[in-house]
């Protein structure tokens, strides 16, 4: 059933149906390859999670990712086509392979291109549809970035991951992998409470980068990043400061005061593509207006996902089946709060993969529930009801 092939100095032990592997990317969790699926005749992406239980950070992430990929079904979120492990016992268990739809490039590559308004607004619309769908399952991403968004040459877009777990985790164990934080909202950087529109900040950063061609707030660390934000957008109001934890507040309040720049100055006309001749609302002025509503430091004054979807620059693409797709089953956040040893994670992840494999292959893992008992005959007793 399985064979082994070496790609990008990594051994892939995969089902025979997947052929012609070529490396296409790598992330914190491992290497991603493209492959030809000889059973479906489709090209696919295969991600190898090498020893996902190697430490609790990796394990939690892999487990959550896998659970959520199984739960969510929306055209703007990457879909799982298959998952398997080549090892057949818990003792031998090492690696998980996730088979996904294959896309052509990630957004880092697309941002470098000169996009016209049609393409830019359509990409943003799809991001917003995907985000809205995640929100409908109670998943607030908080870590959207171009490397985790993939596109096809026909301009379709999918979000690849599910962001940060609700409980504060540490990415320390992910070293030497460098975590990109440029797109994280002020409330994430400053450790404040957050709501759905935390993800709109990231969309704003991505849109701004599409226009400017460079990262808007490339901080070397949280402090540097905060400086880059306020230098451009200005020091936030005293009401915002009041919502900060005392230690953070004293740092933030003691920074020099910046007035920030107007959006016409931050994103001058010359940076935008020519206004659309087909859609009257796809203009530099509308694009800048949307940007100025997403890149707002104070989350209470920032636009919401629904408002963004209804913005003139976006709503040209409105389709109820995409915007208002039925919500997935709500996500059980207790998963994020679970603390386990590495051995327990190993077993949990192994079980999860086995469950997926058997469900997919139509095996019956549990005996069917017995038929309900026949209704009892009318009560004869005279005693008190219990
Ligand atoms: P990840 O490990 O999920 O962070 O993915 C790392 C990189 O692999 C991404 O930035 C993409 O460039 C690429 N990639 C991952 N999944 C896919 C996919 N389904 N289609 C195309 N490229 C992908």
From TrEMBL:
Q: Which UniProt keywords apply?
A: ATP-binding, Kinase, Magnesium, Nucleotide-binding, Phosphoprotein, Serine/threonine-protein kinase, Transferase
> What's a single GO CC term here?
somatodendritic compartment
- What EC number(s) are associated with this protein in UniProt? 2.7.11.24
What GO MF terms are annotated? ATP binding; MAP kinase activity; protein serine kinase activity
Instruction: Specify where the region named Disordered lies, as residue ranges.
Output: 360-386
Instruction: Give residue spans, biased composition: Pro residues.
Output: 367-379
Query: InterPro entries attached here?
Result: Kinase-like_dom_sf, MAP_kinase_CS, MAPK, MAPK_JNK, Prot_kinase_dom, Ser/Thr_kinase_AS
Origin: domain of life: Eukaryota
Instruction: Supply one GO BP term.
Output: regulation of response to wounding
Task: Give the subcellular location.
Answer: Cytoplasm
The first-level EC class reads transferase
In terms of CDD domains, this protein maps to:
STKc_JNK
Where is the Protein kinase domain positioned along the sequence?
Answer: 18-314
Question: Cofactors per UniProt?
Answer: Mg(2+)
Reaction equations catalysed: L-seryl-[protein] + ATP = O-phospho-L-seryl-[protein] + ADP + H(+); L-threonyl-[protein] + ATP = O-phospho-L-threonyl-[protein] + ADP + H(+)
A Pfam cross-reference name = Pkinase
**What family is reported?**
Belongs to the protein kinase superfamily. CMGC Ser/Thr protein kinase family. MAP kinase subfamily.
What this chain does, per the entry, is described as: Responds to activation by environmental stress and pro-inflammatory cytokines by phosphorylating a number of transcription factors, and thus regulates transcriptional activity.
Q: What is this protein called?
A: Stress-activated protein kinase JNK
Name the source organism: Tetranychus urticae
Gene transcribed to yield this protein: 107361712
